[in-house]
């Protein structure tokens, strides 16, 4: 997702477009605990919202 602005501006081009997987998903992996640090929860929530806005664009 870091390269998206460069792709959108044309400075970077995609290769093998016919090989891209649709809906492959992104996973956040972290240790299972009763207490999940707030920093981790906030970061995961941020990623969820960021990717949702990218999907609808």
Write the layout of secondary structure elements.
Blueprint: H1 4-9, H2 38-56
Could you characterize what this model shows?
This protein is mostly helical and 57 residues long. Helix content is 44%, strand content 0%. It contains 2 helices and no strands. It has a domain at 22-57. It is elongated and about 45 Å long. The mean pLDDT is 82.
Radius of gyration: 15 Å
Beta percentage is under 5%
Largest sheet: none
Element string (H = helix, E = strand): HH
Helical/strand content category: mainly alpha
Q: Counting H and I runs of at least 4 residues, what is the number of helices?
A: 2
Shape from CA axes?
elongated
Percent helix range: 40-55%
CA distance, first residue to last residue: 14 Å
Low-confidence stretches: none
Overall pLDDT? 82
* Total number of strands: 0
């Amino acid at each position: 997702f870091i390269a998206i602005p460069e792709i959108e501006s044309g400075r970077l081009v995609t290769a093998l477009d016919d090989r891209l997987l649709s809906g492959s998903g992104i996973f956040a992996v972290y240790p299972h605990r009763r207490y999940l640090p707030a920093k981790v929860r906030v970061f995961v929530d941020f990623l969820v919202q960021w990717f949702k806005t990218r999907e609808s664009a």
